[in-house]
Amino acid sequence: MIDAVGLHKTYRLKNRQVHALNGVDLHVEAGEIYGVVGQSGAGKSTLLRSVNLLERPDAGVVNVDGEELTALRGGRLRAARRRMGMVHQHFALLSSRTVAGNVGFPLEVAGVSRARRATRVGELLELVGLGDKARAYPSQLSGGQKQRVGIARALASDPRVLLSDEATSALDSEATESILALLRRLRDELGLTILLITHEMDVIKRICDSAAIMENGGFREAGRVLDLIGTPGSLLARSLFPLPDIGGSETVVITYPRSFDEPFMSELTRRFDVDVNILGGGVERVAGQSVGRLSVDMSGARRAEALRYLSQNGLLVEEAGK
Ligand code: ADP
Ligand code: MG
After folding, report:
1. Tens-place pLDDT, residues 117-149
2. Which of 63, 46, 43, 66 lies closest to 55, judged by CA?
């Protein structure tokens, strides 16, 4: 759905240059939730604004839904951009307008009649769970409710793609949870493709199918979340499952990159007579699967056989120092 290749963007300031994008390739499948995670200054917002060409990249090509946006100008670019909704960290609501007035604003700009606007705004507010707030003003809403208004407004033009710039970063954990659940429901019900950027690993863990880790204007790692977690040396796996920095020559890190029914650890001790001592780790729900990562000390004469057994069953085994 989104195919961006070779994106470069340099900001030229008075006394220096900032390379905000250093050759980024981004591939987002239709209907997936794709998260770009990285620290402040990594280039995430620049990337998002390049996807809808609010920022024109210095080099590279952006295709969205089969259309080459980087080849468009003027009215055709504006029309293409309307097929992408944008959600902002600080909501960007108009304080002098009611909730309905905010959600209807893009329709007003697009010249939609008052009657059709009223119907559509009603539907959108129902969709985001704010059916009873049409006449409220933004100042009367909680952060989570304001973001629901922001999302309803982004959906007003019936976009196929939703772009979200840190939509939950200004929210507490409860509101974050409900907004993430809403985004997932919108993806499921409307078939939206969602590209979101965040500095929170938790957002990746909770709703993303695919993810990229961004650093200094480039992707360090990108792909399906579960594939990345199952890849040796994955930075995403390490970031999602921080392990204690202890252990020695017998320490192994065992990754369960999906749900398994088999009780591997008890099987190991029984079959191969190894001793297993868990140093740290955990199991979490990631992309709909129970994914785990454990750091363990494993000893015994048949240790190598035991590790091979895990690998053969689809677990990832990484030995300390290798
Ligand atoms: P992120 O969203 O990951 O925090 P940004 O894309 O906002 O990162 O910024 C990437 C880099 O580009 C930063 O060093 C930032 O200061 C710089 N930058 C972003 N926008 C501009 C701009 N309009 N003018 C100059 N520098 C900018
Ligand atoms: Mg940003």
Report:
1. 999 999 999 999 999 999 999 999 999 999 999
2. 46
In our burial notation (b when 16+ CB lie closer than 10 A, e otherwise), range 81-116 reads bbebbbbbbebebeeeebbbbbbbbbbeeeebeeee
**Residue among 10, 11, 17 to mutate when testing ligand 1 (max atoms within 8 A of CB):** 11
Ligand lying nearest the CA atom of residue 37 = 1
- 138-146 long-range CB contacts below 8 Å, 24 or more apart? 138/91, 138/93, 138/94, 138/95, 138/97, 138/99, 138/102, 139/95, 141/99, 142/175, 143/91, 143/170, 143/171, 143/172, 143/175, 144/171, 144/174, 144/175, 144/178, 144/179, 146/91, 146/93
Angle at 103 between CA 98 and CA 104, to 5 degrees: 95
Closest residue (by CA) to atom 6 of ligand 1?
43
Give the N- to C-terminal CA distance of the chain in Å, as an integer.
38
Model confidence over 214-258: pLDDT tens digits?
999 999 999 999 999 999 999 999 999 988 887 788 999 999 999
Q: How would you class 3 by CB atoms within 10 Å of its CB: exposed for 0-12, middle for 13-18, buried for 19 or more?
A: middle
Backbone angles phi, psi at 223, to 5 degrees: 155, -170
CA 318, CA 251: separation in Å to the nearest integer? 9
Chain position carrying tokens 């944008």: 86
Q: How far apart are CA 96 and CA 209, in angstroms?
A: 38
